[in-house]
Amino acid sequence: MDAGDDPLRILKDCREGMRQVGLRYERNEYFLAGLIMAGEIFREVMGLLQPVVERQVSGQSSGRILLGTVEGDIHDLGKNIVNMLLSCHRFVVHDLGVDVSPTTFAEQAAQVQPHLVGLSGLLTNAYDAMRETVALLRARGYQGPIIIGGGQLSEKVCQYVEADHWTTDAVTGVELCRRLISGQMQAGGD
Ligand code: B12
User: Fold this and answer.
1) Is there an atom of ligand 1 within 6 Å of 48 CB?
2) pTM, rounded to two decimals
3) Which long-range contacts (CB under 8 A, 24 or more apart) does 175-178 make?
């Protein structure tokens, strides 16, 4: 950071580090403690980068976004990055935290009336929770876009979950949110 590196590039490098830790855990070269340690380091890095990113990024677009990690999943580092970047772009983010049930998402959507809902999830097991959350949101009348995000996602998962969009990257995700919400606002939403 002192050398003036782009904070988003630093985040990208750290994410690659996390990917490597995950692979080593998968190969039984690291224990769970390694995952936890990597998570803690990442959190510290984010704490340092956040003020710098907040100073650098700005934007005109705004809107309400409901965000959370789906039921059964407690991974939140990626979600927190998305939250940070969205806030920098002047979105009002209602972050419901981790392990959020479909019912809580649906209740909060009714209350907050978001322009967009973002679901985060990294576990394969989370895909069913995502699917249930999307189904309940739709059943309770939420008609806006639903984006799912997480490192292991794919088009196939998106189709299974019946979400509108998917991403494995926060910067792309935030661009997508900007586009989708400004479209809604131009169409006359509040
Ligand atoms: C750190 C970590 C942990 C930490 C989490 C700390 C925390 N507070 O989040 C701890 C140690 C707690 C943990 C626990 C577990 N973990 Co873990 N973990 C990881 C690891 C190494 C990194 C994840 C991470 O934070 N990546 C960095 C972030 C920045 O990337 P990201 O989450 O993908 O987010 C980016 C994008 O996806 C996107 N994004 C994310 N969400 C959203 C949402 C929206 C709306 C948008 C637009 C974008 C977006 O933006 C982010 C920035 O670009 C991964 C390996 C990996 N390579 O992913 C395993 C991994 C996800 N974990 C795994 C497992 C198995 C577990 C445990 C079940 C282990 C256990 N036996 O207990 C538990 C799960 C407990 C639970 N119920 O959730 C597996 C999952 C396998 C699977 N297919 O299901 C992985 C893949 C490791 C592996 N290779 O086996 N884990």
Assistant:
1) no
2) 0.89
3) 176/147, 177/63, 177/65, 177/86, 177/89, 177/91, 177/116, 177/118, 177/147, 178/59, 178/61, 178/89
